[in-house]
Target: Ribosomal protein S1
Amino acid sequence: MKITVDIDCTPQEARTFLGLPEVEKMQEAVMKELQAKMLENIANLDPENMMKTWLPAGIQGFEQMQKMFWSQFNKGENEGK
Model:
């Protein structure tokens, strides 16, 4: 036996019928706060700050990273011989 029930109502009507709380105002407040935080973080993403974060010692940090990669490649090359 199979029974199908179709209910045609709006989300607001369903929440009221099921006794669920009204969360629209809370969601709006949370979204405003989230938007403010995201805009603040985007403002902090200027290229100079990003480079300082990623390469603390500037070019010297990049050179050290490059040397590390080359040493790993050379190890694999020497092991193959």
